[in-house]
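Lab notebook page, bench 4
Experiment: in silico fold of construct C2
Operator: M.H.
Input chain length: 94 residues
Purpose: comparison with the prior construct
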Amino acid sequence: MTRFTPFDASEFLDSEEAIAEYLAAALQDPDPDLFVAALGDVAKARGMTQIAREAGLGRESLYKALTPGSKVRYETVRKVMDVLGVKLTVSPGA
């Protein structure tokens, strides 16, 4: 019998380019939970405890905020993105 382990995107987010592309792709989906989950994957890849500390947030609070279905505040998203060294940009739609 073949056993499979659950896919963990954070294992593949090992460069600035991969992180930027992953978050940009998540933003293309109309479901905001997908972006929140992607941001959580990136924080996990970088070390959730360190990200929480640098963002001035509790580790458990950050885990809860980056869980799909949470009503994460923009302020929290912004703090995490600043710590991760990524930014949101706006461009004209197609």
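Observations: The mean pLDDT is 91. The two ends are 48 Å apart (CA to CA).
Next step: discuss at group meeting.
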